[in-house]
From TrEMBL:
Coiled coil spans: none
Any one Gene Ontology cellular component term annotated for this protein: endoplasmic reticulum membrane
InterPro entries per UniProt: 3-oxo-5-alpha-steroid_4-DH, 3-oxo-5_a-steroid_4-DH_C, SRD5A/TECR
Protein name (Swiss-Prot/TrEMBL): 3-oxo-5-alpha-steroid 4-dehydrogenase
Lineage: Eukaryota, Metazoa, Chordata, Craniata, Vertebrata
EC main group: oxidoreductase
Role summary: Converts testosterone into 5-alpha-dihydrotestosterone and progesterone or corticosterone into their corresponding 5-alpha-3-oxosteroids. It plays a central role in sexual differentiation and androgen physiology.
Length: 265
């Protein structure tokens, strides 16, 4: 893989410049996405329509679209001269990244119960995004990210790591609650209860937003920050859309629940 990358980039300086450009472009795309989502829900699940292409089986879609976020980084770490992977801060940040995507690509899709098919456009965009972001995050961490020897004891790294862990656990627990709302063979929607769902409609989204915000704080780079910003824009929109949908569909939906942030928003 080193030979492939050496053909694409004349030098490490050039590749690092490209990685920086990818990060800033992701921030630009987050801004464009924010404007778009003011007028349109993300077309998946309950919001899926035929306007966005033919339907793709939900389990197949989740598995295939998320897999590049695991496989591309894995290849970058195993089959390139990833010099920075010998440094503890880089190792811990890579573990955070892989913990999420091992679960999201290799475990989560096969636990889905019911669920509506994913429109092809949403599936294709997610697939491309996972390649893009997987390369950007892990190539930077494994090859270019420089941290001081005491970075793992710095307030930024410790706070970010704790936020990442809390967010990851909240996300896993919330997905477990949502998955078990449906008995085998059921496909309808029910009011989620338990865990953070007692306080917000988008507990799973809150967890993932917190997770990547913590990762960005611990990694302290424009690359991790751009992913955190993009995640915030997309998942906050989903949380507010779900909250409105729940209130409209269920007359007995708890009126005290917020959309995304407990007691606040």
């Amino acid at each position: 893989m080193d030979s492939i990358l050496s053909k694409l980039f004349a030098s490490e300086t050039e590749e690092l410049y490209v990685l920086d450009c990818l990060a800033y472009f992701m921030i630009f795309m987050a801004a464009c996405t924010f404007i778009t989502l003011l007028f349109e829900n993300v077309p998946y699940g309950r919001y899926a329509t035929s306007r966005y292409g033919f339907p793709v089986n939900v389990k197949f879609a989740w598995f295939v679209q998320e897999l590049p976020a695991f496989l591309v980084p894995l290849c970058l770490v195993l089959w390139t001269s990833a010099a920075k992977t010998t440094h503890l801060p880089n190792q811990l940040l890579l573990v955070m990244y892989f913990c999420h995507y091992v679960q999201r690509s290799l475990i989560y899709p096969f636990l889905i119960r019911g669920g509506k098919s994913t429109p092809f456009a949403s599936f294709a965009l997610a697939f491309v995004f996972c390649i893009y972001n997987g390369y950007m995050q892990v190539r930077y961490l494994s090859h270019y990210a420089e941290y001081s020897a005491d970075w793992v004891t710095s307030p930024c790294f410790i706070t970010g790591s704790v936020l990442w862990l809390v967010g990851w656990l909240v996300n896993l627990h919330s997905d477990h609650i949502l998955r078990n709302l449906r008995k085998p063979g059921e496909t309808g929607y029910k009011i989620p209860t338990g865990g953070l769902f007692e306080y917000v409609s988008g507990a799973n989204f809150f967890g993932e937003i917190t997770e990547w915000a913590g990762f960005a704080l611990a990694a302290h780079s424009v690359h991790s920050a751009s992913f955190s910003i993009f995640t915030l824009i997309v998942l906050a929109s989903r949380a507010f859309a779900h909250h409105r949908w729940y209130l409209q569909k269920f007359e007995d939906y708890p009126k005290s629940r917020k959309a995304l942030i407990p007691f606040a928003l």
